[in-house]
């Protein structure tokens, strides 16, 4: 996809961590675009989308009239922003400094510029943080005071917004909950395992625990969810445990894969969302505050500590699969209702500024 001929559609900029090889971010983009397409049809507001991306080749096919704008071309980005009617940040935790302070500065600078040139900014199904620096919090607070609407992904984000009296906000859910997925129907005990590089520091104890799971009858599969960062880790563990490695080639594969599993163990957030969508139990390591916050809906019963992991504890946790499965199916419906409510709020907001 590249430049398109001019249209009379309303140009919107979509901003996020898109085009970097992480399926979670690409699915968030897809879900946000589908929401906007639905809203546009409902309100008779035809949209044209200008999506800021890293590498266009890593972005899956998208619905609607889409132009991919490369972030390494700042003049094109600026021109796109000036011609737009607003900016939608769709999914993810764009405003955080755990990746780097430079990354946060980059995103806040672009969004602040959008505000300065009079473009309304709305966050849809987004999280905030973590923040490791006081300066980061100050930058984010300054930006958010001028944001028109923030539909929060989780309770922790909403609490931050309300505590600091920053902008109109309400509780939604991750946009990925709005993607249609097949419900789980797996009969074999397939366990999808999604690891990050942090797993290498605990490889011996992890492999011991996973080997025990194999002896208990689980069929392990190691999945590279981030195409660039996770593959080497997945291959390292798979070779050690004589298990297959799975690398997705498209969105349809991602969305159908989880229905074939009986459980998920993950160090990444979006495999947990997708597992919940499919109604299968999951267990996650406490490496990310958004994972900890998500696990709180299960009273933390599916949360594992990488630092203190014991092979026997890993096996014991997975024996609660039946109980977690029932809880997951109840929560799946709750998250979807929240996401649909946020979609309705987004529609009302867009109608108020564009209708």
From TrEMBL:
Pfam families referenced in this protein's UniProt entry, alphabetically: PS_pyruv_trans
Keywords (A to Z) from UniProt: Transferase
Family annotation (InterPro entries): Polysacch_pyruvyl_Trfase, Polysacch_pyruvyl_Trfase_CsaB
Gene name in the database record: csaB
Polysaccharide pyruvyl transferase domain mapped to chain residues: 22-288
Keyword Secreted attached: no
GO molecular function: transferase activity
Protein name according to UniProt: Polysaccharide pyruvyl transferase CsaB
């Amino acid at each position: 996809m590249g430049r398109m001929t001019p249209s009379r559609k309303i140009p919107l900029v979509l901003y996020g961590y898109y085009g970097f090889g992480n399926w979670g971010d690409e699915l968030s983009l897809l879900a946000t675009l589908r929401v906007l397409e639905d809203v546009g049809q409902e309100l008779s507001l035809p949209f044209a989308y200008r999506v800021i991306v890293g590498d266009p080749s890593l972005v899956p096919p998208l619905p609607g009239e889409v132009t991919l704008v490369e972030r390494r071309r700042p003049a094109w980005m600026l021109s796109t922003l000036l011609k737009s009617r607003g900016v939608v940040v769709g999914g993810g935790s764009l405003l955080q400094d755990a990746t780097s302070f430079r990354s946060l500065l980059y995103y806040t600078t672009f969004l602040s510029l959008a505000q300065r040139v009079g473009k309304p900014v709305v966050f849809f199904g987004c999280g905030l943080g973590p923040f490791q620096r006081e300066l980061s919090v100050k930058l984010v607070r300054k930006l958010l005071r001028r944001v028109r609407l923030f539909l929060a992904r989780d309770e922790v984000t909403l609490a931050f917004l309300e505590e600091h009296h920053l902008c109109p906000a309400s509780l939604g859910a991750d946009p990925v909950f709005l993607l249609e997925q097949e419900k789980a129907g797996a009969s074999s005990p397939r366990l999808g395992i999604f690891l990050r590089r942090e797993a290498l520091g605990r490889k011996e104890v992890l492999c011991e625990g996973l080997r025990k799971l194999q002896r208990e009858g689980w069929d392990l599969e190691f999945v590279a969810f981030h195409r660039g960062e996770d593959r080497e880790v997945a291959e390292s563990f798979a070779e050690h445990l004589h298990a297959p490695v799975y690398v997705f080639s498209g969105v349809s594969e991602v969305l159908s894969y989880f229905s074939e599993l009986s459980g998920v163990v993950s160090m990444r957030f979006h495999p947990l969302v997708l597992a919940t969508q499919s109604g299968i139990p999951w267990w996650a390591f406490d490496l990310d505050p958004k994972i900890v916050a998500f696990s709180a809906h299960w009273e933390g019963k599916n949360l594992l500590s990488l630092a203190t992991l014991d092979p026997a504890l890993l096996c014991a946790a997975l024996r609660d699969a039946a109980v977690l499965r029932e809880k997951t199916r109840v929560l799946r419906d709750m998250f979807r209702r929240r996401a649909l409510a946020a979609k309705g709020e987004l529609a009302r907001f867009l109608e108020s500024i564009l209708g």
